[in-house]
Amino acid sequence: MNIVIDPVDSDFSELTHLISEHNALMRSVSPEESCHVMTIDELRNSDVVLFKATEEKSVLGMGAILKIGRKHGEVKSMHVQETQRGRGIGRLILRRLIEKSRSFDWHRLSLETGSTVEFKAARTLYVSEGFSDCAPFGNYVEDRFSTFMSRTL
User: Fold this and answer.
1) What sign for the dihedral angle of Cα 81, 15, 4, 43?
2) CA of 59: how far to CAs of 3, 86, 142, in Å?
3) Residue closest to 112 by CA, chosen among 146, 141, 79, 73
4) Most buried pick, 45, 98, 101, 109, via CB within 10 A?
5) pLDDT by residue (tens digit) across 13-41?
6) Best CA proximity match to 125, nearest among 90, 78, 77, 79
């Protein structure tokens, strides 16, 4: 496995399909008011760092971090192509996001994910990388379709 996790510059053209796939999947398994996906324009925000996972020039997945406070970041848009799941790509992306967050000297990294069965694998991954349940943060509110998690860096 020779997977590379690199930041994405301003050209998102090779990720457009993956971002659309991610957003469609999230909207298909979560009610609209509980779906917190970022659009392509939102991912271009200067407070967002987007990464892509590639293998032999094929894009396999993505993940982003968003600065939400002076020393606090949020994991956003974690997604691996369905045909590539089970290979550890999500873990590689998440570890790169954690590494980058530490380089910003953030003290905390948080995330929101779904609470339903469709998100069980994601929640298991996050727990295995040191995340634990927390209260809603930022602009989030308590929601039975959401699980909030956080970890110190």
Assistant:
1) negative
2) 10, 16, 34
3) 146
4) 109
5) 889 999 999 888 888 888 888 889 998 89
6) 90
* CA–CA dist 52, 114 (Å, integer): 22
Give, for 73, the enclosing helix (H) or strand (E): strand 72-80
Beta strand 108-114 with 146-152 is: antiparallel
How many Å apart are CA 105 and CA 126, to the nearest integer? 20
How much is the pTM? 0.94
SS3 for 21? Answer: helix
Joined together, the tokens standing for residue 18 give 């993956």
If you count them, how many residues does the chain have?
A: 153
pLDDT digits (tens, 9 = 90+) for 82-121: 899 999 999 999 999 999 999 999 999 999 999 999 999 9
Q: Which two tokens stand for residue 29?
A: 């398994």
Q: Are the CB atoms for 113 and 63 separated by under 8 Å?
A: no
Q: Which amino acid is at 40?
A: I
